[in-house]
Design goal:
Structural class: mainly alpha
Number of helices: 5
Distance between the termini: 35 Å
Number of strands: 0
Bound molecules: fe (ii) ion
Oligomer: single chain
CATH architecture: Up-down Bundle
Length: about 140
């Protein structure tokens, strides 16, 4: 499976968020490296759990940031996060049932969802912050 490469266009310009997004990319890559072995499904499941836990932390931080700045689309953004957690958890369970093909599905889902979510939804709150909050306050988070 092809690795997941970070591109400048994914950068929101909010340091903490960009670091967290990059870490999520690294965890997807860790999953890709481990899934190539196909031998240790427990290890893959652990990696997925690590990713899920980290994604939850990241989503909580983002939601807190949006709440602080009264972002009007917080609720629909939260629904996106909830969908991601639910779907990834479900795919992870399927992987544990030794459906090796599902691993590729998981990785494709993670890559696609993370990329689209950052470019479409996270960029949207970034644009809102930029337009409504003085630069210093928005980018000191
Ligand atoms: Fe995000
Ligand atoms: Fe988000």
């Amino acid at each position: 499976m092809e690795k997941f490469y970070w591109k400048d266009e994914y950068s929101l310009g909010v340091e903490k968020v960009d670091c967290q997004h990059q870490h999520l990319f690294e965890l997807v890559n860790k999953l890709i490296e481990r899934s190539d072995k196909f031998s240790d499904l427990k290890l893959i499941s652990e990696t997925l759990t690590e990713m899920l836990n980290y994604a939850k932390e990241h989503f909580a931080d983002e939601e807190e940031l949006m709440r602080e700045h009264s972002y009007p689309e917080l609720e629909s953004h939260k629904e996106q996060h909830t969908y991601f957690i639910g779907t990834t958890a479900e795919l992870s369970i399927n992987a544990l049932n030794k459906q090796s093909m599902v691993l590729e599905e998981i990785v494709e889902f993670l890559k696609l969802w993370l990329t689209l979510h950052i470019l479409k939804y996270d960029m949207k709150y970034r644009d809102y912050f930029k337009a409504n909050i003085p630069a210093k306050a928005a980018f000191s988070v």
